[in-house]
Amino acid sequence: MRDTRLIMGMPVVFEVADAEATADDLEAVFAYLVSVDEQFSPYKDTSEVATMNRDGAHEPSKEMREVLAIAARTKEETRGFFDTTKPDGTFDPSGVVKGWAILNAANLLKERGRKNFFVDVGGDIQCAGVNAEGKPWTVGVRNPLGEGIVKVLAPGEHGVATSGTYVRGAHIYDPHTRAAPPRALLSLTVVAKDVLEADRYATAAFAMGADGLAFLQSVPGVEAYGISPAGTATMTSGFSAFVAP
Predict the structure, then answer these.
(1) Which domains does the chain have, with CATH numbers?
(2) pTM of this prediction?
(3) What pLDDT sits at residue 87?
(4) For 204-242, b where at least 16 C-beta lie within 10 A, e where not — what string?
(5) Angle at Cα 196 formed by Cα 203 and Cα 20, nearest 5°?
């Protein structure tokens, strides 16, 4: 069972391979992601993010407190290269919310008894189990310099996230300089224990520019694959374990 919808301004793809899967499984997950968008979108005047930007005295919700705690931990773990404050001074937790929401959506499916599924929100992915053919799920790494796929991954139960400028332009910045990082990489794909870990580390490491891959090499349980503007690919020492045979 598979469906695709546009939520949070990006394509959201769910595929559940369990024979007992129902349309209600997909509807529950889509409804959850819509609620996340309503609460956390920096572009919706009624969202909690917009309210916090208008009213610094706002008391954060339980969900917001959870996101803020993850963001604070990520900032500390990445030497300050992850920050929820944009260059214009506004608050934007999107660098945490996307991976957090995907992981929560995956856990929602597990709570409903589903064991084999694939969740893809704008290219950030959480896999579980196997596909409808009983084979491992595979994930393609897009070529940031043109069309096609440059690597096919078999992440197993891991999460995959990619940061880059080739789709959305320069939207990631170095919090220390408040400027876009040097163009050392066009894309950076990270594999970690789950999509939240992959997403937060991909965002921070991309902001580091040329130092990003070396930083990720030092993080246990995290592997990465970067592509430079010249088309040169560099990977961490354990990344090849996730490349599909």
Answers:
(1) 2-242 (3.10.520.10)
(2) 0.93
(3) 86
(4) bbbbbbeebbebbbebeebbbbbbbeeeeebbbeebeeb
(5) 140
